[in-house]
Amino acid sequence: MPATQKDPRRRAGGAVVVVLLLCGCGGERSPGREQLQEEFRRLAEGFDRETGARRISAAELKGRLRQEQAIVLVDTRERPEFDVGHLRGAILLPPAQLADRPPELPEDALVVTYCTAGYRSGLASVELERRLGRNVYSLTGGIIGWFNSGGPIVDKQERTADQIHAYSDEWKKYVIERR
C-alpha cells in the first residue's frame, strides 16, 4: 500500500475508539448522582409495590410533622443502625420484636414505619396494620429517602446528626453526603 494511503482497518479502529470514548462505553464509569438517585427511586417504589404497604413520602411526612399532628415513627431497623441516626422521637421496633408483639400505640396517632430503603418497614407496616386494625404507612425510600431530602436526623443521644447507617456498602452509594 502506498505511504499516502491509510489502511482502512486502522481508520475504522480509530473511529471505534472515538465512539467508545464519546459514549462512555470504553470502560467502567461511576454513575452520576442523578443516575443513582433515579435508580434508588425505582428500587424504593418497587419495595412499596412488593410489600403492598401504604406509602407516605418524605415531603408529606415533613408537612404533617410541621402541623404537629400526632405521629408515631417506628424504626424497623436494628439497634446499631438506629444508634447512628434516626428520625427524632422514633421508637425502635426491629422485626424480631414485632413478631413477638406489636407495641401499644395511641389510637389517634398516624403510624409511620421506616427502615433503610423501605422493604423491612413495608413488611412491618402491613403486619402492624393487620394487628392494629388501622392504617399504617411506610416511608417511601426509608431513612435514605428522608436523609437525601434534607430531613433531620438525630443520633442515639438525640443530638442532630449528619449521617445515617446505610445497612451495607451496596446501599451506601445512594446516600447523599451532608457537609
What are the low-pLDDT stretches, counting only 5+ consecutive residues below 50?
6-27
Terminal-residue CA separation: 61 Å
Question: What percent of residues are in strands?
Answer: 5-15%
Q: What is the H/E order?
A: HHEHEHEHEHEHEEH
Q: Any guess at the CATH architecture? A: 3-Layer(aba) Sandwich
Helices and strands: which structural class? alpha/beta
The number of E-state strands comes to 7
Total helical elements:
8
Structural shape:
globular
Name of the top-level CATH class? Alpha Beta
Helix content: 40-55%
How many domains in all?
A: 1
CATH superfamily: Rhodanese-like domain
Radius of gyration based on Cα positions? 23 Å
Would you kindly provide a written description of the structure presented here, covering whatever features stand out?
This protein has 179 residues and is α/β, with parallel strands linked by helices. The chain has one domain (32-172): Rhodanese-like domain (Oxidized Rhodanese, domain 1). 45% of the residues lie in helices and 13% in strands. The protein has helices spanning 8-23, 33-51, 58-66, 79-84, 95-100, 119-132, 142-148, 169-172; strands at 54-56, 71-75, 91-92, 110-114, 136-139, 153-154, 160-161. The strands form two sheets. Strands 1-5-4-2-3 form a five-stranded parallel β-sheet. Strands 6-7 form a two-stranded antiparallel ribbon. α2 runs parallel beside α6. It starts with 7 loop residues before the first helix and ends in a 7-residue tail after the last helix.
